[in-house]
Amino acid sequence: MHNTTFDSLRDTLRVLFLATGIVASTAISGAFPVSAQAPQGGPDIVASLKATPGVLGVEAARTVSGKQAIFAWFENKQAAVGWFYSDAHQELMRRFTPGASTGRKPLADVPDNSGPILAIASLTYADQPQIPGVQLPISQIAIELYAPLPGGVAVGGRFAPSSVKVPGLLEMTRTSR
Questions:
Q1: Domain span at residue 47?
Q2: What is the pLDDT of residues 64-99, one digit of tens each?
């Protein structure tokens, strides 16, 4: 007997897993040690993202809680969808989640006239696999989408690329003493 909700969740997790983390570890393994069981090979996801038209910037990090994350700023929905259908991303999907599908179109709920989008892909490694249908040793995986809100302040630089336009952002330069 199949549990449709579980099967759908498993397929969604497989796609999310591929899109974010499986190769996020490959991309940031030089800067941050990861599990020896982390997958190797495949395209460098950070370099592939940076080469994608409409990608405004990419950062990779490891959080205090142990999550490995990629921050990718896209010019708009079309750029993010372009990444989804790129050769590099499609290769990763075929390699690490063959046959998995959510049945949804990417960014289906994002308006076509969206402005900049920040996609944060994160995963947390574990000693052994903890997500049904995922054979890699992870306990968490997520892809989250955000858009800039008006306001904020930046002194001496920003986390987001300067090409990400934020209405009402107060940008100041440091003054030397």
A1: 4-146
A2: 999 999 999 999 999 999 999 999 988 877 766 666
